[in-house]
Amino acid sequence: MKFLLDFLFRVFQLFTEPYFLVFLAIVIIAVLKRKNKSKNLRIVIFISTVVMVILIGNGFLGKMISGYLQETYLKNSMVKSTVVQNPVIVVLGGGVVEINNTGKLHTMSYSRMVTAYQLYHEYRKNNQPCKILISGKGRGHKSEAELFREDFKKMGVPDSDIIKEDQSMNTYQNAKFSNEILKKMGASNMYLVTSGFHMKRSVALFQTFGLKPIPQASDFIDTEITWFPNSYNAAFTFVMLKEVVGIWQVQLYNSLGMNK
Question: For residue 176, what is the domain's CATH number?
Answer without folding.
Answer: 3.40.50.620
